[in-house]
Amino acid sequence: MSILVLADHHDGQLAGATAHVVAAAQQIADADGGDIDLLVAGENVGAIAEQAAKLDGVSRVRVADNGVYAHQLAEPLADLLAALADDYSHILASASTTGKNVLPRLAALKDVSPLSDILSVESADTFKRPIYAGNAIATVQSAETLKVLSVRATAFDAVGESNSAPIDTVDTVVDNRLSSFVGEELAQSERPELGGARVVISGGRGMGSGDNFKLLDGIADKLGAAIGASRAAVDAGFVPNDMQVGQTGKIVAPELYIAVGISGAIQHLAGMKDSKVIVAINKDEEAPIFQVADYGLVGDLFQILPELEQKL
Amino acid sequence: MKVLVAVKRVIDYNVKIRVKADNSDVDLTNVKMAMNPFCEIAVEEAVRLKEKGVASEVVVVTIGPKAAQEQLRTALALGADRALHIETDERVEALTVAKLLKRVVDDEQPGLTILGKQAIDSDNNQTGQMLAALTGLAQGTFASKVDVKDGTVDVTREIDGGLQTVSLKLPAIVTTDLRLNEPRYAKLPDIMKAKKKPLDVKTPAELGVELVAKLTQLKVETPAERQGGIKVASVDELIDKLKNDAKVIS
């Protein structure tokens, strides 16, 4: 049996997470055999399919290009996947807001129990996944014949891009009378997305105000970093919720994570503790963030940040 | 319009969890339990819809052991009108939870069903989506705004990189994200009144749903502890370490 990966994309671009999900699929294929198909569903997604065909390990790209799949609404996308599912032993997607929206709906349509946010492939039917916000790791075995899995992209290394897989058209067009797209407000930013950034710099309550987050801008520019925040900073109204890193926000695992004015509540650590290198800047030397930081700098962030920006 | 809210009893979000010595599960003995935070937001949204005159009745349902009635009483104190407890001591998979809730939706015929986007114990983020599939209804997941119109509801969703608004045909299923509202605290007189509000108890068998388990939890482990590193004395030393030791900047 083969494996189907649902490609994640936005703004006409294949999301970086997809290459990581294909890597997870590759591990299942190594254990279980089978080809990897990649499904690109949306409207005017030809260019995305071309990008997807480059991903190593992909046997075939399947393209469902129709207005009904625009904006990747859950209802039509789950119906499409359900129509294709019988050819597959595993269906995977990134644990992005799209994957998390669509996959459980698909699973229920096929009457199977899905698994969310897998961190590792132990075998073709056994996976590790975080529970309690990553404070425990469960190893779970699925007895379902169709395994529906969302994948934590940062837990798998991306596959390369030296392939040129054939591209097929999927003619299935479903009907959607349940939902329609009204609008979208995407944060306009020159910076990389939090989930996929190589460097993340986050501010906490210690930043003191939303205005002071500007102190992070120059450093982020120099490092090509995404800017995040702790829940405390979000709750204080400094910055919008989509910047939140933590148990209830985004889970990140960049090569370098810089926590500024963040004390290190469990809820925040759950979102960033898998980063490769962690730097903490905080005036309170007892702050729990220092217990997980590779490099801690105790001091006043209002002096340290300008100096850091200047010296980088 | 009737609004149905599903809630879950979970470990209190402030509690630091412990894994059992035999690695079979997380240890829940003598641990403080509470309503899942996302479910509190769901209750609050339903109560606000009633206060605005959009909802005529708020029904709250939970699936779990006898003790889960505490969370139903909390929801009643917050403003729900009546409660349904589907009692079981077994671990119930999300798909089965969705099947049980489907029976409740069939019986109650709510215009809107609101659930938390995920429970902070299993972190599945599945039940609302699965309930929507099983009932054949539209889903508005990770909602930060819910605007009920005539025959439809506009749901603003928190998606990666921003917000998306969708229009859903009613009846519909909505799951809550953090920003939807800030739940109120129950006042003492409301807690007293809640004790007298109706609370019905049913079993999964009475609803005609068999508790099947397709997922086996083989092991639960504590994640590898991250070792704390060193303190640096200056910005210069920090930059030097990042460049030359960690090699994460150039």
Automatic annotation (TrEMBL), chain A:
User: Is-annotated flag, keyword Flavoprotein?
Assistant: yes
Q: Where are the transmembrane segments?
A: none
GO biological process: what's one of them?
fatty acid beta-oxidation using acyl-CoA dehydrogenase
| Entry-linked InterPro entries | DHS-like_NAD/FAD-binding_dom (IPR029035), ETF_a/b_N (IPR014730), ETF_a/FixB (IPR001308), ETF_alpha_N (IPR033947), ETF_asu_C (IPR014731), ETF_asu_C_CS (IPR018206), Rossmann-like_a/b/a_fold (IPR014729)
Lineage top rank: taxon: Bacteria
Q: How is the cofactor bound?
A: Binds 1 FAD per dimer.
**What cofactor does this one take?**
FAD
In alphabetical order, the GO MF annotations are:
electron transfer activity; flavin adenine dinucleotide binding
Boundaries of every Electron transfer flavoprotein alpha/beta-subunit N-terminal domain copy: 3-185
Q: Which of this chain's residues are annotated to bind FAD?
A: 205, 230-231, 244-248, 261-268, 282
Keywords for this entry?
Electron transport, FAD, Flavoprotein, Transport
Pfam families attached here?
ETF, ETF_alpha
- Family the UniProt entry places it in: Belongs to the ETF alpha-subunit/FixB family.
> PANTHER family from the entry?
ELECTRON TRANSFER FLAVOPROTEIN ALPHA (PTHR43153), ELECTRON TRANSFER FLAVOPROTEIN SUBUNIT ALPHA, MITOCHONDRIAL (PTHR43153:SF1)
Its annotated function is as follows: The electron transfer flavoprotein serves as a specific electron acceptor for other dehydrogenases. It transfers the electrons to the main respiratory chain via ETF-ubiquinone oxidoreductase (ETF dehydrogenase).
- The name on file for this protein is Electron transfer flavoprotein subunit alpha
Source organism of the structure: Modicisalibacter muralis
TrEMBL record, chain B:
Q: Is Aminoacyl-tRNA synthetase one of the keywords UniProt gives this record?
A: no
* Residues of the Electron transfer flavoprotein alpha/beta-subunit N-terminal domain: 23-211
UniProt KW Transport keyword? yes
Q: Which UniProt keyword terms apply here?
A: Electron transport, Transport
Q: Which cofactor names does the annotation list? A: AMP
Per its UniProt record, what SMART domains does this chain match? ETF
What molecular function terms (GO) are annotated for this protein? electron transfer activity
Single GO BP term: carboxylic acid catabolic process
Q: Write down the Gene3D superfamilies for this protein, in alphabetical order.
A: HUPs
Q: Which InterPro entries match?
A: ET-Flavoprotein_bsu_CS, ETF_a/b_N, ETF_b, ETF_beta_N, Rossmann-like_a/b/a_fold
CDD domains, per the entry:
ETF_beta (cd01714)
Similarity section: Belongs to the ETF beta-subunit/FixA family.
Assembly, in brief, is: Heterodimer of an alpha and a beta subunit.
What this protein is reported to do is described as: The electron transfer flavoprotein serves as a specific electron acceptor for other dehydrogenases. It transfers the electrons to the main respiratory chain via ETF-ubiquinone oxidoreductase (ETF dehydrogenase).
Q: What is this protein called?
A: Electron transfer flavoprotein subunit beta
